[in-house]
Each structure stands twice: as structure tokens, then as C-alpha cells.
Specification:
By secondary structure, this protein is an alpha+beta fold. The protein has 10 helices and 8 strands. The longest helix has 67 residues. The protein starts with a helix and ends with a helix. 24% of the residues are buried.
Length: 451
């Protein structure tokens, strides 16, 4: 049965992060009955890749707060206390005191204890890089949000495929049960014919072998379905011990719906394309940021300080003078030469933009190919499903007629065995066509951005 199902499970499991219960108390098992929409909603909250993508959004918002802080006033408080073991020495020209020219007299200035407390403010008035960073904040968050959507889209496609393949697997089990029931009746009829001398023991043994093979096939199918459920739980972010029931059904009418008639496709419908367009916009901001780094930076500075000087340590005990110093000023930094580092940054950012444009062009070609290929595959899958369904119905009709001939003694065991084999082959081909149509339909909707 579920070779498609198992394939997608294995592919996704390679990138999925396992859940860990280390250090946690055992949790009670839960039972879930999910439609496809409920399964998708559950995955949005619990899938590990989606949760990490959402954390990237939160991390970007914190980065934006840091960028915003660059444009806000910076206020700092300062304080220091100094105890001079030896006061610093200053040299005064000797001529002041009548000494020969060129001589110096050492003099100590100051007091033993000095303390300063103050508050300083710095405000960026103009910095081109900061302003571009402020402009790019929304785009940066949108970029991470779009990454969440791209991640959800990938997981959504896999959930659709596995979910509906598991729903379709119910049809496989019904077909197997019906075949087993037919063979059990045939085995019983053959046994009666043998006991009455109208059939050989070999005929009964052949039917028994076919019945054993079908029961074995059913066991394998049930095991594959169980593995499929485990894979779907991994996609959903659900503990393996929880039980999951799928409530949706799938019909030939759903698969045969003419979705190919909708030709209103645009590249922007694809989440990956929207993601790359945002990346291009961020590249453009990067170029602008580095280009503005050639401009001067203007900052406003202000400070208010109190200073005390004592020869005895009574700064905070005894009343005394605290001298005030305050200022407000502008600081202009003019870049002159940086060893061509700015030129290199601008050039590199332009190369990054060209690479993103190349990726967009390649993605357009890839999307065109995917849309056309998935359209052809879906159209072929629809026709194949219709043909295989008619073929299965015909094989079942042939088998029933052959069985009736066998029961009234006008048919042989060889004929009914061949009819049974043809019926099983037709049923397997129908199931394969059904799974193929499910995958083809999902691939087409994903390729056109309408999943």
C-alpha cells in the first residue's frame, strides 16, 4: 500500500526534530479526531519547525528594539572616588619665580580625596546607517513572518499527502476484506465439492494458498498504515503515544474536480517567491545603509557633574562645597578614509542583490516548470484513475461470473484462479492510481500557490 506515504514520511523525518520528554513527568495519552483543517491547525501550533520559525520572528523583533535604541537618547550615570597616595606633580617654568630660563619647579596641586558624580546624555542627530536600519525594521519582521509561511506551506503539503493517503488506505483494507471474504466462501465451496468428489484436493489447496497470501497482504497493509500514522503524528508535532483518528473522507469526485480550469496563476501566489522578494528588498536596504556610511555622523552630547575635593575623608559626612560642571555640545564625525572598507561593503551588497535577482529568475523558471509538470501529471492521474476504476469494476464482474460458472460445475479452478488474480491486480492498480491522483492534485495546488 502506502509506498507514497512511507516515502514522504521518511523524507520529512530526516529534517524533523524529535520531541524530548527528558526530565518531565509522564503525560496522559490523548485521543484526537481530526479533519484535515484541524490537523493543519494543530501542526501550526505544535510542529517544531514552525515553532522555531515563529521564534525567529520574536528574535527579529528584539533585534528591531536594539536598532530603535540606537536612535533614542542614551543616558548614563557616573561616579568615582579617588584617594591620592601621592598627589600628582606639575612642572612650572622657573622664570615665573626668577629662576634661569629653561628650568622647572615641581609643584603639587590638588587635594588627597576627590569625588565626582554626574549624568551624561548622548543623542544621535544624524547617522545614515541608523536611519536605514529604522526603515528596514518592518521588512525584516515581514521577512521572518514569510519564512514561517514558507515552512508551514512545506509541512502543509506533506500533511495533505499523508492524511489523504491514510484516508484512502481505508479503501485498501475494505478491498482486502472483500477479497478475503470471497476466498473464504470459495474455499468453503471447494471443500464441499471435494468432499462430494467434484473437485480435487489440489483445487482446495490452491484456494487456501491464495487466502493465506491475502491475509499476509492485509497484515503488511495494516503495518504500513500504522507507520503512516506515526509519520503523520511527527508532522503534526503530536506524541507517538497519543491516538489519532482521521474524520475526513475522500471521493473520486474530489480528485476529479476540474481545478485545471483555474488559470489565474501569478508568481506572487507562491510563498517562496514572496520570501525572495522580501530578501531583495532587504538587500536594497543594505546597499543604501553602506552608501550612507560615507556621510558624517552628528551627535548631541550633554553632561551635568558634581565634584568635591577634600584633604580629609569627609566627603559624605561633613558639609562642604560640591562644584558643578555642566555642558551641552555637538560632536561631528567626518569619515575621510577607511582603507576602501566602505567601498568593499557597498560592492558586496550589490553582489548580494544580483544573486537574489538571479534566484528570483531561477525560481520563476522553476515555478513555470512545476506548474506545467504538475498540470500534466494531474491530468494523467485523473485519466488513469478513471480507467483503473472501470477496469477494477470489470474485473470484479468477470470474477463473479466465473465464480458462478465454477459453482454450477461449468467452470474450472484454473479459470477462477485467473479471474481472482486479475481482480487483485486491477484492485492494486486502482489503489496505485488513487494514491497517484492524490499526490498529483496536491502537487498542482502547491505549484500554483493555491494549496
Amino acid at each position: 500500500m502506502t509506498r507514497y506515504c512511507i516515502l514522504y514520511i521518511i523524507l520529512f523525518a530526516a529534517t524533523a526534530t524529535p520531541r524530548s520528554a527528558s526530565g518531565q513527568a509522564p503525560k496522559a495519552n490523548h485521543h484526537y479526531a481530526f479533519s484535515i483543517q484541524q490537523a493543519l491547525d494543530f501542526a501550526k501550533v505544535n510542529n517544531v519547525q514552525v515553532k522555531n520559525a515563529l521564534l525567529n520572528v520574536q528574535a527579529q523583533k528584539e533585534t528591531n528594539r536594539e536598532i530603535t535604541a540606537s536612535a533614542l537618547p542614551g543616558i548614563t550615570g557616573t561616579g568615582n572616588l579617588m584617594n591620592y597616595i601621592e598627589l600628582p606633580v606639575s612642572l612650572l617654568p622657573g622664570e615665573i619665580f626668577g629662576q634661569p630660563p629653561g628650568s622647572y619647579i615641581p609643584v603639587r596641586f590638588g587635594t588627597k580625596y576627590n569625588s565626582t558624580v554626574g549624568i551624561q546624555l548622548q543623542q544621535t542627530l544624524f547617522d545614515g546607517q541608523v536611519f536605514v536600519g529604522l526603515q528596514a525594521r518592518k521588512t525584516s519582521v515581514d521577512f521572518q513572518l514569510k519564512n514561517v509561511e514558507v515552512t508551514e506551506e512545506l509541512i502543509k503539503a506533506n500533511i495533505y499527502k499523508v492524511y489523504y493517503q491514510l484516508v484512502a488506505s481505508k479503501t485498501q483494507i475494505k478491498i482486502l476484506d472483500a477479497n478475503i471474504q470471497r476466498l473464504e466462501k470459495l474455499e468453503n465451496d471447494t471443500r464441499i465439492l471435494y468432499n462430494n468428489g467434484f473437485a480435487e484436493k489440489l483445487d482446495e489447496d490452491k484456494v487456501s494458498i491464495q487466502l493465506t497470501n491475502l491475509n499476509t497482504e492485509k497484515i503488511k497493509a495494516l503495518n504500513s498504515i500504522e507507520i503512516g500514522y506515526l509519520g503523520l503524528k511527527t508532522l503534526l508535532g503530536m506524541p507517538a503515544k497519543d491516538t489519532l483518528e482521521l474524520t475526513d473522507k475522500i471521493t473520486d469526485g474530489q480528485i476529479e474536480a476540474n481545478i485545471l480550469a483555474d488559470t489565474g496563476f501569478q508568481y506572487q501566489d507562491r510563498k517562496e517567491y514572496q520570501y525572495l522578494e522580501l530578501a531583495k528588498k532587504l538587500n536594497e536596504y543594505n546597499i543604501k545603509r553602506y552608501q550612507l556610511s560615507y556621510l558624517p555622523i552628528l551627535n548631541l552630547n550633554a553632561a551635568y557633574n558634581k565634584n568635591a575635593q577634600r584633604n580629609t575623608f569627609d566627603l559624605f559626612v561633613k558639609d562642604g562645597d560640591w562644584f558643578t560642571t555642566s555642558f551641552i555640545g555637538l560632536n561631528l564625525t567626518v569619515p575621510i578614509f577607511s582603507g576602501f572598507a566602505k567601498d568593499a561593503r557597498v560592492a558586496k551588497s550589490k553582489i548580494d542583490l544580483r544573486q537574489t535577482n538571479n534566484q528570483l529568475e531561477n525560481l520563476r523558471n522553476t515555478i513555470d516548470n512545476e506548474v506545467e509538470q504538475s498540470r500534466i501529471n494531474f491530468n494523467t492521474a485523473q485519466n488513469t484513475l478513471r480507467f483503473q476504476k472501470k477496469n477494477m469494476e470489470l474485473a470484479e464482474k468477470v470474477y463473479n461470473q466465473t465464480r458462478k460458472k465454477y459453482e454450477i460445475g461449468t467452470g474450472s479452478n484454473v479459470e477462477i484462479s485467473a479471474a481472482q488474480t486479475d481482480l487483485i491486480t486491477a484492485q492494486n492498480n486502482y489503489l496505485s492510481a488513487l494514491y497517484g491522483a492524490i499526490v498529483a492534485r496536491i502537487d498542482y495546488l502547491k505549484a500554483t500557490g493555491k494549496l
